Amino acid sequence: MKEKLGLDNGILGPSLLDLAGQVNTTLSQINRIFPAQGFGFLMSIILSSIITKTSCLHLYITLILSIGAIINILIPFSTSLGWMTGLFLLQGCTKGLLDTFVYTLCLRLFPGEHNWQMLCIPIAEAFSAFLIPFVVKPFQSQMFIKSGANITSLSNCTTDTCYVTASRIAYPYMFTAIILFPAICAFAYYSFHEKCSNKLEEEYDRMSDSQTCITEVILFSAISFIHWLHKKQNIIAEDESS
C-alpha cells in the first residue's frame, strides 16, 4: 500500500512531457500541477488529524487506495490542463491521507518502542519510486531522425527531418492502479470484519463543532481552487484561439 506513494512520486518526472503533449500545453504551463499536488497534500494533513481519531482505519485505507487508483487511471486521459491539475490536487490529497493512515495503523499494530516494521514503510516507498521510471521508459514518446535527413543531432530537428512516436504513457499509469488491487481487496476484507459502524457513530458524535467547521472550509477551498484552475484554463484557451 505504501508503494503507491513511491509510484506516484517516481512516475511523474519521466511522464511529464507526455502528459503535457496529452493536453496540448507547454512544459512551463503544466508545471502548475506541482503546487496543486502540494496543496492537496497540505489539505490532507489537516483532514487526517480529524479522521485518524476514528477506529476504522482499514475502511479509510480501502477508500483512499481505491480513489487513488481511479485517479491514476484518469490522469493520462485528461482532455484539458485544468482537469489534469484538479486530478493531481486530489492525488496529493490521497497521498497525504494514505501516508498518515499507514503510519497510524503501524503504530496501533506494533506499539512497541523498537518498531522495526515502521522502517519498512519508507524503504518500500523509496524502492518503488526507484523502479517505476524503468517501467515508464518503454512507453514514452521518442523522437527519431528520418532516414535520409541531413542532420546528426536531435536538437536540429524539424517536422521534415524528424518524427515522434505515439505516446503510450497511459499504460504505466494503469499499471500503478492495477498493482493496488491486492491491497484494496485485503483492506476491504479486514474492514468488513472490523464491524466498526457503531464505532464510527460514536467517534463522529465526539467530534467538536470546530473540527466540522475546519472540514467544511477545506472542502470549500478545494472546490474553489479547482473552479479557479478550470476558469483560468478557459481563458488561456480563448487567448490561444484568438
From TrEMBL:
* Transmembrane segments annotated in the record for this chain: 33-51, 57-75, 116-136, 173-192, 212-229
UniProt-listed SUPFAM superfamilies: MFS general substrate transporter
The record's InterPro entries line, in alphabetical order, gives:
MFS_trans_sf
Query: What are the UniProt keywords, alphabetically?
Result: Membrane, Transmembrane, Transmembrane helix
Q: Does the keyword Transmembrane apply?
A: yes
Q: This chain belongs to which protein, by name? A: Uncharacterized protein
Name the source organism: Acanthosepion pharaonis
Lineage of producing organism: Eukaryota, Metazoa, Spiralia, Lophotrochozoa, Mollusca
